Design the sequence.
């Protein structure tokens, strides 16, 4: 009987802990980004590595944001594709027309036998890289004019081997992309900030990986990660193994979300969640304590009076954190009324990720293998 009573009260307990986590995240977010400082302009020659695959909403605009950086030195944008007919070429052509003086290099390499298509693309691109400072970023990222100054300032610090960047979500394709963007900004981002601020993890993200050619060579080059699912994390760990730090400055860049259906959002989030599960299984399981609203809704069924109070508290603390994130980002990722839907969907993704063994990456089915590796059919 006591065991049954404890089970009935479990959702309420999770909701209370989740509310406390949200308030803690709000304080940590505010303090972390309060440390942001401007950086001097740099004249270091830079190659921007942009692995591309297919047409994406606002692709040309995303790429153009990197060319608008406040930078005094040479900048090469190296865009790589594995297929001559890749639809991303149209966006690159429009970018060249808009920036006729920019050094925009296109590399169309052969189809490489890599389970991780992005890393196969990068490995093929490297012979065309002109400069020794490399700044890799995903094609769906957009940045502000101070991006290169801040990243290069961090990279120049003693003991830093690479720089990565935190990011918020931006909806580019309607309501489902708003759900995905809201999940990134209001659930994933606070967790990354807490992990970074307290040393609970060593993030290295595809949003940005800046390093020198020498460091890249010391960790085996991109070719060493062509069959690794969490390639960004593995690169960061390899940098740490050299005795160097991966710096995370208190700045935000933007991740464009292009999901147009519930299925697309589900596949995207499950891929991310399964990747995190494999990287830090114990820490990932602890995420059950971070989301107050889904267990509060369950508490309505087991302890109705207390559950109603928990739902009200969960909504209030979630909205407070949402407003804090939006204030830091200077933009809203999703309307407030979508946040509860995103939270419930994300909770379902969390549960499903424990049994996921196959994931989708840009339409390709990948099978998860031991030690963070993946296999694909060619």
Sequence:
């Amino acid at each position: 009987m006591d065991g049954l009573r404890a089970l009935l009260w479990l959702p309420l307990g999770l909701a209370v802990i989740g509310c406390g986590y949200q308030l803690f995240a709000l304080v940590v977010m505010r303090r972390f980004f309060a440390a942001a400082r401007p950086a001097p302009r740099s004249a270091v020659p830079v190659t921007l590595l942009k692995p591309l695959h297919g047409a994406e909403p606002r692709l040309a605009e995303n790429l153009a944001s990197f060319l608008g950086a406040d930078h005094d030195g040479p900048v090469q944008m190296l865009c790589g594709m594995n297929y001559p007919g890749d639809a991303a070429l149209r966006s690159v052509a429009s970018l060249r027309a808009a920036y006729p003086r920019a050094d925009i290099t296109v590399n169309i390499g052969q189809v490489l036998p890599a389970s991780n298509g992005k890393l196969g693309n990068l490995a093929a691109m490297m012979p065309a890289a002109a400069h020794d400072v490399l700044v890799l970023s995903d094609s769906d990222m957009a940045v502000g004019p101070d991006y290169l100054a801040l990243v290069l300032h961090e990279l120049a610090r003693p003991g830093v081997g690479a720089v990565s960047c935190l990011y918020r979500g931006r909806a580019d394709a309607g309501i489902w992309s708003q759900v995905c963007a809201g999940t990134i900004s209001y659930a994933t981002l606070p967790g990354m900030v807490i992990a970074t601020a307290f040393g609970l993890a060593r993030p290295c993200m595809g949003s940005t990986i800046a390093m020198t050619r020498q460091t890249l060579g010391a960790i085996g080059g991109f070719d060493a990660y062509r069959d690794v699912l969490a390639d960004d994390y593995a690169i960061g760990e390899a940098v740490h193994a050299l005795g160097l730090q991966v710096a995370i400055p208190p700045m935000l860049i933007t991740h464009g979300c292009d999901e147009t259906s519930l299925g697309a959002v589900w596949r995207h989030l499950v891929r991310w969640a399964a990747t995190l599960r494999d990287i830090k299984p114990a820490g990932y399981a602890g995420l059950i304590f971070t989301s107050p609203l889904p267990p509060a809704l369950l508490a309505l069924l087991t302890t109705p009076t207390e559950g109603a109070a928990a739902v009200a508290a969960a909504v209030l603390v979630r909205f407070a954190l949402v407003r804090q994130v939006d204030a830091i980002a200077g933009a809203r990722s999703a309307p407030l009324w979508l946040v509860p839907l995103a939270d419930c969907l994300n909770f379902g993704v969390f549960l499903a990720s424990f049994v996921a063994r196959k994931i989708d990456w840009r339409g390709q089915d990948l099978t998860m293998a031991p030690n963070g590796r993946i296999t694909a059919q060619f």
